[in-house]
Amino acid sequence: MAGWNKVGARKLCIGLTGRMASGKGEVARLLQGRGFSYISLSDIVRREAAREGGTADRLRMQDIGNRLRARDGAGVLGRRVRETVLADAATHWVIDGIRHPAEVLELRRIDAFILIGIECSVPTILARMKARGRASDAGAERELRAALDREWGLGEPANGQQVGPTLALADFFIDNNGTLDGLRDRLDAVLEKIGAGHV
What we know:
alpha/beta, globular, Rossmann fold
């Protein structure tokens, strides 16, 4: 957490973690509206899926991510994103899709990296998944709960998704069980605390 009192002089990177459909995408969009460049660890997995061919549904994406972590180390996605961010001229980044503690360790090697955990109840998440109408959210509630459990880390190997332990590493938490306006206000409060309210 050291370094955020000097965010004006450093490359500020805000990482996001939390369950699927918890509101990470909304926070990322709000930060992009403030001029942050966007990158997601899932982009690396999508590129691998495209290289292999076939569909990129949620289950396959999880499997590919697990395979990459098993082959190249649990922090591989965080390491690749860190290398991309540090090589780029942009000074403010929002990093989405952090799902493993080892990814956090890699990203903390960036001087001014801050991890925000987005918290949302499972019933609220399920209601939002059904309402947003994405093809990946079209399964029965039992299937969606199974996907949430797997992402959380239940029954996953050490190199699998571990959102639960990752969320525990957050520097700040934002509750997103309410409205978009409430989410914006809570994000603004965090930005003020880290000295980035002017961004």
